[in-house]
Write a structure and sequence with these properties.
- 17% of the residues lie in helices and 53% in strands.
- The protein is an alpha+beta fold.
- It has one domain: Porin (Beta Barrel).
- Strands 1, 2, 3, 4, 5, 6, 7, 8, 9, 10, 11 and 12 form a twelve-stranded antiparallel sheet that branches.
- A hairpin with a 7-residue loop joins strand 5 and strand 6.
- The N terminus is likely disordered.
């Protein structure tokens, strides 16, 4: 996986150097502009460890083909470094499954989100569109929520579980395990201007994450979480940006 990413970046770098050698005769003009917008993103997490447990609970599995993250981002070119733009992004989404198993209502949710600083270089030898290579540097989290209940509850039912010495027998379950991580995400984005003020975006990246510790509920350390339930995922990004574009 990392070899493929390295080869792609090497190919881009080679073309950049080759074009730069020819650039003196072309007369490149530095890109500039400022923009912000919404960025629907499709990410493909490995949910096999979660689905293994979901099947035991008698529920339909979460989709292995991916999930949608919603959010937005923006950037501005810093004029003292040609073609370099800095900005930010934030994305999050949820995939869930639920159903009635016997007399019990059950639900499982998987949540994923991240955000951070974006640093991108727009290739100056590509005309009419903005092709940018860069990275996201930031942090994020993923979590699994597990719920079970046998129907409606009263105020007293809820509080009796913690005010009666912890010996109340109940079918009600509400647990969450969570992993918080730092990330470095190589990205490649293409911005296609419709006019000077609106542009469409398509791109992608790969979240390289650091931090595999999990906690449950009120930050209790949690062991035994499968190693392959990590947050290293490919994603495809789309979007519409509003601002000013000079490509």
């Amino acid at each position: 996986m990392k070899k493929i990413i390295s080869l792609i970046l090497l190919f881009i770098s080679f073309n950049f150097i080759q074009a730069q050698e020819e650039g003196e005769d072309v007369g490149w003009v530095a890109r500039f502009g400022i923009a912000g917008g919404i960025t629907p993103t499709w990410i493909i997490p490995n949910l096999d460890p979660v689905n293994t447990e979901i099947k035991k609970a008698g529920l339909e599995e979460l989709s292995n083909s991916g999930m949608v993250l919603w959010g937005g981002g923006g950037y501005a070119y810093i004029m003292f470094v040609d073609n370099l733009r800095i900005g930010g992004i934030g994305l999050s989404g949820t995939s869930s499954t639920s159903g009635k198993v016997g007399s019990l209502n059950r639900e499982v949710k998987y949540n994923f989100g991240f955000g951070g600083l974006t640093v991108e270089y727009t290739l100056p030898f590509v005309k009419y569109v903005g092709v940018s290579v860069g990275a996201i540097i930031g942090a994020g989290s993923q979590s699994v929520e597990v719920y079970q209940n046998s129907g409606s509850q009263s105020w007293r039912d809820i509080w009796d579980k913690v005010t009666s010495g912890g010996i109340v027998m109940t079918n009600n379950v509400s647990d969450e395990i969570k992993n918080t991580f730092y990330l470095f995400t190589p990205t490649l984005n293409v911005d296609i201007p419709i006019n000077r003020f609106v542009a469409l975006r398509v791109g992608g990246g790969y979240t390289l994450t650091f931090g595999n510790d999990w906690s449950a509920n009120n930050d209790n350390s949690t062991s035994g979480v499968p190693d392959d339930l990590d947050a290293n995922n490919f994603f495809i990004q789309t979007g519409i940006y509003f601002g000013f574009f000079a490509y």
